[in-house]
TrEMBL record, chain A:
GO terms for biological process: endonucleolytic cleavage of tricistronic rRNA transcript (SSU-rRNA, 5.8S rRNA, LSU-rRNA). The lineage of its organism: Eukaryota, Metazoa, Ecdysozoa, Arthropoda, Hexapoda. Residues 186-289 form the RNA 3'-terminal phosphate cyclase insert domain. Transmembrane segments: none annotated. GO terms for molecular function: RNA endonuclease activity. This is RNA 3'-terminal phosphate cyclase-like protein. NCBIfam families: 18S_RNA_Rcl1p. It comes from the Eukaryota. Keywords: Nucleus, Ribosome biogenesis. GO terms for cellular component: nucleolus. Pfam families: RTC, RTC_insert. PANTHER family: RNA 3' TERMINAL PHOSPHATE CYCLASE (PTHR11096), RNA 3'-TERMINAL PHOSPHATE CYCLASE-LIKE PROTEIN (PTHR11096:SF1). PROSITE patterns: RTC.
């Protein structure tokens, strides 16, 4: 898992897991990485389309990046250039959702030279990656805690489902010289639930059926539930049929938890009914609420990154149980930046008071390394 | 599996160890490797079989996790979604909502009582 340092500050890794984390941190820290043994023993060895696509995206964001691949694609050398940013368009691989690529841009955005203004095309929601809506509703509030600005935004122009995609989104992010440290110790209580139901290239009635079944679950917990239906016409609804439900819960202190469920791909798996999708989405949201914390569980790693790179001051954040992804991300943060977080269970004084408040929480504390964005022009 | 994972995390007293344990074991390894040389002869059982060394086992474990698909979602794919309407599960989250019981320090009626006192 952990990398070894070879000459020239280069970090050496094996295998394709966590490649995205490693590339992001490589770009930010300026340390080159070398990854070997990428799927060496698989039937299809080497990097897959979506990973090559990711590297292309990084190449577009940066200036002067050196990428070397061997013939079979099982070895990759990546020497990052300067983070430039700016306006560009990118066609994402359909193997992964746009969220997979968007997350990278969210993490890199504040450190670019020119504010990002990117159009991404591909699949807007699938079951592996956080959907575009998820990034919009759960990641951006987290980012806004570090950069006080309303300029950061995601806009869905077209939706696209698997297998053919056809979705299109715009992402904007301002640049910052420094990030500010945060102190978030209380997640608050859920006060309202909102949602968007979308039915693309299928009967519009499906959206309402999803809303009804999701409400059936959620209204047992809180009365303030309002779910919009997003009806799209023509090419705005992408190239493939499908439907899904995105839900987001807001707490009293402005923390957002999001969850999403999409229908199975029509041609491949068993067909899913709108009722099943609706209930599943509701249950997933309740799972997120159970995990709790001051950031959405999928946005933990973004928060950890920004905490580590913030000004030289103490940042504190309470989160739910760490996800596998966050655990490896913390390990990588230590390897690339030498930042170690202090992690401890949050102890509540009164036991009786703590019944029914979800999972045990973890308090993350760290001192930022005062990463300053040298690319940003001082005006 | 998800439950097991969450439970394991809440049970491990030391979260630091869960996350950064690898690094400590790495540091220990350098000192251990010296010990291994000494123990090499002992690990040969009956002159025929060799005990699989710690190192090899670790490499095997790494191999399993080398080429995983990465996703930042807590539970990607649609694996075992809990039914939260189950009374047992419902109890776990009830007080996460404003409709649930508030902490004494935040509860309006409790605070009013304090005013009177």
């Amino acid at each position: 898992m952990s990398g070894t340092v070879i000459g020239n500050n280069t970090l050496l890794y094996k295998g394709s897991s966590c490649m995205r984390q490693r590339l992001i941190l490589s770009v930010l820290s300026g340390k080159p990485i070398k990854i070997i043994d990428i799927r060496s023993y698989h039937d299809v060895p080497g990097l897959q389309d979506f990973e090559i696509n990711l590297i292309r995206l990084l190449d577009k964001v940066t200036n002067g990046t050196v990428i070397e691949l061997n013939e079979t694609g099982t070895e990759l050398y990546f020497q990052p250039g300067l983070l430039h940013g700016g306006a560009f368009e990118h066609d994402c691989s359909l193997q992964r959702g746009i969220g997979y690529y968007l997350e990278v841009l969210v993490m890199l955005g504040p450190f670019c030279k020119v504010p990002l203004n990117v159009i991404l095309r591909g699949v807007t929601s699938n079951s592996i990656d956080p959907s575009v809506d998820h990034v919009m509703t759960a990641f951006l509030p987290t980012v806004k805690k570090f950069i006080v600005d309303d300029d950061v935004s995601v806009k869905v122009l077209k939706r696209g489902m698997l297998p053919l995609g056809g979705g299109e989104i715009v992402f904007r992010c301002p640049v910052r010289r420094h990030l500010r440290p945060i102190q978030l110790l209380d997640g608050g209580m859920v006060k309202r639930i909102r949602g968007i139901a979308y039915a693309l290239r299928v009967s519009p009635a499906i959206a309402n059926r999803m809303v009804d079944s999701a409400k059936g679950v959620l209204l047992k917990f809180i009365p303030d539930v309002y779910i919009n239906t997003d009806q799209r016409k023509g090419n705005q609804s992408g190239k493939s049929p499908g439907f899904g439900l995105h839900l987001v819960a807001e707490t009293t202190v402005g923390v957002f938890y999001a969850a999403e469920q999409v229908s199975n791909v029509a041609s491949e798996d068993e067909k899913s009914t709108p009722e099943d999708v609706g209930t599943a989405a509701a249950n997933k949201l309740l799972q997120q609420i159970y995990l709790g914390g001051c950031v959405d569980s999928a946005a933990q790693s973004v928060a950890a990154l920004f905490m580590a790179l913030s000004q030289k001051d103490v940042s504190q954040l309470v989160v739910g149980p760490l996800s596998e992804y966050t655990i490896t991300f913390l390990q990588h943060l230590r390897e690339f930046f030498g930042v170690t977080f202090k992690l401890e269970h949050l102890i509540v004084d009164d036991d009786e008071d703590d019944v029914g408040r979800g999972s045990d929480k973890i308090q993350m504390t760290c001192v930022g390394i005062q990463y300053s964005n040298l690319n940003k022009r001082v005006t | 599996a998800q439950d097991a994972f969450v439970n394991r995390q809440s049970r491990t007293k030391n979260v630091m160890k869960l996350v950064y344990g690898i690094f400590e074991s790495k540091q220990n390894q350098s000192s251990e490797s010296n010990d291994n040389e000494v123990n090499d002869e002992e690990s040969e059982i009956g002159g025929l079989f060799r005990v699989v060394s710690h190192e090899q086992q670790k490499q095997k474990m790494n191999k399993d996790s080398m080429n995983l698909t990465e996703s930042s979602l807590f539970e990607p794919w649609n694996i075992n979604i809990r039914n939260w309407l189950d009374p047992e599960n419902k109890m776990l989250v009830e007080n996460c909502f404003v409709t649930g019981k508030w902490r004494d320090s935040e509860d309006a009626s409790e605070l009013l009582k304090l005013d009177d006192a």
